[in-house]
């Protein structure tokens, strides 16, 4: 069951009149029926396939390393990147939003990192559109125990909703991340704009996703080949340009194979 304090704090960040229902599995449901069904190509349908939630971290998630090549960072290294890029050891970071969080493995790691850094007011919110993924996330978080510390569930909440229309107020979170997901979601640039919107001034953003590499012919062929599955391959400047136009500073891009890590601080 979800921790009532984490749920209440999460609801306090929502825009006024945002409908929210606390499901029996402890997930806050903010979906709006009038929005209709989301785009459903192969990649999106796979994320809603129940059994995938149980093998996501061990099998599906590491497949993204194929995009980065043999020298690319492991999932554990990606986590250390996120802690650094999101400024989780800084005194001003306490509320983190993990968009397209899947079964919550990354969400829990971010929460543990904040608590270990002494942030007893830490709250990490995982948002996803997949019911099976979030059900697994809520179960695993409830089972997580920490020796000599508060229960991790006090610092984690999960929201079932559409990343294209985040329920949060403008500038309501200290840090926001979206790792290994933007290439899967419908309307990814609209989602990215929402990440920018909900971030407070001075807050940090971090994403990891695909990037076009090689000659135009090769890059175009790769993008065309994966498009029918619902995957998107992004241009090298797609996200950095948005951040610069939005007034971000400390914008950084690191490329590993056909994957990119992009981070920046909102002025």
Strand content: 15-25%
Main sheet makeup: 9 strands, mixed
How many helical stretches? 10
Rg over C-alpha atoms, rounded to the nearest angstrom: 17 Å
Number of strands: 9
**Distance between the first and last residues' Cα:** 38 Å
SSE order in H/E notation?
Answer: HEEHHHHEHEHEEHEHHEE
Helix share, percent: 25-40%
What best-fitting shape do the alpha-carbon axes yield?
Answer: globular
Describe how the helices and strands are arranged.
Elements lengths: L3 H9 L8 E2 L5 E2 L12 H6 L4 H9 L4 H4 L6 H11 L9 E5 L5 H12 L6 E6 L2 H13 L12 E5 L12 E7 L8 H11 E12 L5 H11 L11 H8 L2 E9 L2 E8 L1
Parallel strand pairs: 2-5, 3-4, 3-6, 4-5, 6-7
Antiparallel strand pairs: 1-2, 7-9, 8-9
Explain this structure to me?
- The chain is built from 10 helices and 9 strands.
- With 267 residues, the chain is α/β, with parallel strands linked by helices.
- The protein has a 9-stranded mixed beta sheet, with helices on both faces.
- The relative contact order is 0.16.
């Amino acid at each position: 069951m979800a921790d009532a304090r984490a749920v209440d704090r999460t609801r306090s960040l929502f825009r006024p009149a945002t409908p929210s229902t606390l499901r029996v599995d402890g997930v806050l449901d903010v979906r709006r029926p009038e929005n209709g069904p989301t785009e459903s190509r192969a990649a999106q349908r796979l994320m809603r396939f129940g059994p995938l939630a149980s093998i996501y971290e061990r099998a599906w998630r590491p497949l993204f390393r194929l995009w980065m090549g043999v020298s690319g960072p492991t999932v554990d290294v990606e986590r250390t990147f996120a802690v650094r890029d999101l400024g989780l050891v800084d005194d001003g970071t306490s509320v983190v939003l993990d968009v397209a969080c899947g079964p919550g493995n990354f969400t829990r790691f971010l929460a543990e990192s904040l608590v270990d850094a002494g942030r007893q007011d830490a709250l990490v919110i995982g948002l996803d559109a997949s019911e099976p993924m979030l059900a697994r996330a809520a179960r695993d978080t409830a089972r997580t125990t920490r020796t000599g510390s508060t229960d991790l569930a006090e610092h984690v909440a999960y929201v079932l909703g559409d990343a294209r229309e985040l329920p949060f107020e403008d500038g309501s979170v200290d840090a926001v991340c979206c790792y290994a997901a933007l290439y899967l979601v419908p309307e990814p640039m609209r989602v990215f704009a929402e990440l920018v919107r909900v971030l407070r001034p001075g807050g940090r953003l971090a994403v990891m996703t695909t990037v076009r590499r090689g000659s135009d012919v090769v890059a175009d062929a790769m993008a065309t080949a994966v498009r029918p599955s619902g995957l998107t391959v992004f241009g090298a400047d797609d996200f950095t340009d948005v951040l610069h136009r939005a007034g971000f500073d400390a914008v950084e891009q690191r490329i590993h194979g056909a994957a990119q890590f992009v981070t920046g601080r909102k002025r």
